[in-house]
Amino acid sequence: MKKYIRVVGAVIVNDKDEILCAQRPEGKNLALKWEFPGGKIEAGETPDAALKRELMEEMQCDILVQDKIVTTVHEYDFGVVELTTYYAEQLSGDIRLLEHIDMKWLPRAAIDSLDWAPADIPAIKKIKNDQPK
Ligand SMILES: Nc1nc2c([nH]c(=O)n2[C@H]2C[C@H](O)[C@@H](COP(=O)(O)OP(=O)(O)OP(=O)(O)O)O2)c(=O)[nH]1
Fold first, then answer.
1. Complex ipTM
2. For 4-129, CATH number?
3. Entry pTM
């Protein structure tokens, strides 16, 4: 049976209604695909705590986790990913990319212009249709 991997992703929106998108590195699963910063939920951790921990580890970024967007399950060759996305607010100043090779702030209307990890497609559709805050 394939590994079942519970993952959380942060959809960080700035005051211009742009969304933070991050590009995965080469040499890993889903190389060069775009994703939302985040990662695997550890045993005993809440989704909210996992998201805050991952953002600190990956980007040295403190966030406030807000509303849940959607949970989707996608089967890859390496396992089954259950991805839950949350809107989030960036609380701290500068982002430092410690794991991703690139990032972009994209206007909500252009969010579907990147080559996203397949598990993200339902979230992308929902975000694109959501109203600005
Ligand atoms: N963070 C994040 N991961 C995603 C998204 N979409 C998607 O399919 N994934 C996948 C990629 C990974 O297989 C998994 C997230 O795990 P991770 O970020 O902790 O793990 P990783 O593969 O980068 O690295 P590792 O810790 O296994 O070495 O979920 C997304 O939007 N954000």
1. 0.96
2. 3.90.79.10
3. 0.97
